[in-house]
């Protein structure tokens, strides 16, 4: 905000009086505005509750700070507008408004080849293998879409049940990039922070690219969080009628 006002011709002495800060401090802020890490500091100074935004988005504070730091790539006026929105609009989940490319790899296909989630070159190996859809591929998540919605729009059939962040059927593990989950109510902090699990039905990418392993909802650690899927229910009804 300081930088925007300065760009519009407000001198540093007047800005200092607005913000009850010294002229030297104002000048230092303006000079540092091009520093990526400083944008998160500016957001805090403008009143953005980064910790609350992180909690609302099921993200770490570090991830939210990195997202605000990424605003340094945008025009100053645009970045200031985003910061103002979070500062004045109360606590809102982190949503980028930008499209993101999601690369996906099926957990079963991964383990069949002897790969693991801890492999640093997991997706490089997948790209060089003979894997294709539905086990491996990529798609674009548009602004306003969840990962599951974008996957379905692209013709993929992924497991789901509630579609509202209240079960683990659609769980994925984020290998690279980050995904916000506004509205999720089922995953524990340990599953989110340590396992890096996300729910694709409410998962929204907050980085330009995201790499995820799908099909992890069937793993034992998510067993107590699963619900009967619509497809399973339909199959059971069909069997009963036979």
Describe the structure.
This protein has 242 residues and is of the alpha+beta class. It has two domains: 2-88, no CATH class; 100-225, Roll (Ubiquitin-like (UB roll)). The protein has twelve helices and seven strands. The chain has a five-stranded mixed beta sheet with strand order 2-1-7-3-5, with helices on both faces. The chain has a two-stranded antiparallel sheet with strand order 4-6. Helix 2 (12-19) packs across helix 3 (23-32) and helix 4 (36-45) crosses helix 6. The N and C termini lie far apart (68 Å).
What characteristics describe this protein?
Ubiquitin-like (UB roll); two-stranded antiparallel sheet; five-stranded mixed beta sheet; elongated; disordered C terminus; 2 domains; 13% strand; 242 residues; alpha+beta
Please outline what is shown here:
42% of the residues lie in helices and 13% in strands. The chain has twelve helices and seven strands.
CATH-scheme architecture of the largest domain: Roll
Helix content: 40-55%
Number of strands: 7
Mean pLDDT: 85
CATH topology tier name of the largest domain: Ubiquitin-like (UB roll)
Q: State the fourth-level CATH superfamily of the largest domain.
A: Beta-grasp domain
Q: Roughly how many Å apart are the termini? A: 68 Å
- Main beta-sheet strand count, sense and barrel state: 5 strands, mixed
Which helices and strands occur, and which strands form pairs?
Blueprint: H1 2-7, H2 12-19, H3 23-32, H4 36-45, H5 50-57, H6 61-69, H7 76-88, E1 100-106, H8 107-112, H9 122-128, E2 136-141, H10 147-153, E3 171-176, E4 179-180, H11 189-193, E5 197-199, E6 204-205, E7 209-214, H12 230-241
Parallel strand pairs: 1-7
Antiparallel strand pairs: 1-2, 3-5, 3-7, 4-6
């Amino acid at each position: 905000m300081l930088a925007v006002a300065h760009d519009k011709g407000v001198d540093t002495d007047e800005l200092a009086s607005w913000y009850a800060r010294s002229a030297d401090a104002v000048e230092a802020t303006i000079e540092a505005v091009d520093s990526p890490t400083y944008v998160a500091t500016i957001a805090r100074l403008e009143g953005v509750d980064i910790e609350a935004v992180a909690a609302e988005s099921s993200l770490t504070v570090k991830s939210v700070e990195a997202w605000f730091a990424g605003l340094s790539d945008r025009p100053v006026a645009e970045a200031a507008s985003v910061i103002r929105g979070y500062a004045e609009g109360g606590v809102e989940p982190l949503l980028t408004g930008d499209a993101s490319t999601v690369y996906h790899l099926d957990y079963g296909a991964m383990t069949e080849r002897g790969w693991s989630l801890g492999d640093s070159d997991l997706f490089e190996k997948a790209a060089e293998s003979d894997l294709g859809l539905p086990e491996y591929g990529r798609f674009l998540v548009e602004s306003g879409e969840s990962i599951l919605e974008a996957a379905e729009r692209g013709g993929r059939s992924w497991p789901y049940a509630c579609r509202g962040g209240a079960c683990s059927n659609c769980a994925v593990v984020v290998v690279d990039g980050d995904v916000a989950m506004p509205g999720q109510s089922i995953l524990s902090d340990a599953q989110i922070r340590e396992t890096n699990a996300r729910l694709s039905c409410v998962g929204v990418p907050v980085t330009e690219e995201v790499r995820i392993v799908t099909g992890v909802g069937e793993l034992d650690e998510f067993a107590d969080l699963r619900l009967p899927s619509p497809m399973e229910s339909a199959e059971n009804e069909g069997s009963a009628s036979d």
